[in-house]
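dumping this here before i forget
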Amino acid sequence: MAVRIDDVRALTAGLPRSYEVLVRGRVKFRVGRIVYLAFSRDETLMGFAFSKEEREALVDSEPEKFLMPTGGDLRFNWVIVRLAAIDLEEMRELVFDAWRWVVPKKLAAEYDERSFAGEI
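structure:
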């Protein structure tokens, strides 16, 4: 079963400082003013925060799943994934890693500790 935007919403609802916005008809998730997830208008693709230095290797390793950003988005720490090509577990990993990319390291560490302790 393909991952849907509602699966992502359910996950991001529990992430500190994360909130959803609608920008020019596209759903995006932010921490402060920084976007860490963004969906295509048809909600089949999800862009996510990711290291510029590592993204080419990720895309090359699984081109059926991952796409390079296009145009002006190449300047950002960003990669795109086809939602139909991933399962819920992989989506969770991508979303958590993208969120960790944009929050203060201390907040990410506190969240990880609480999660590991079973508080979340």
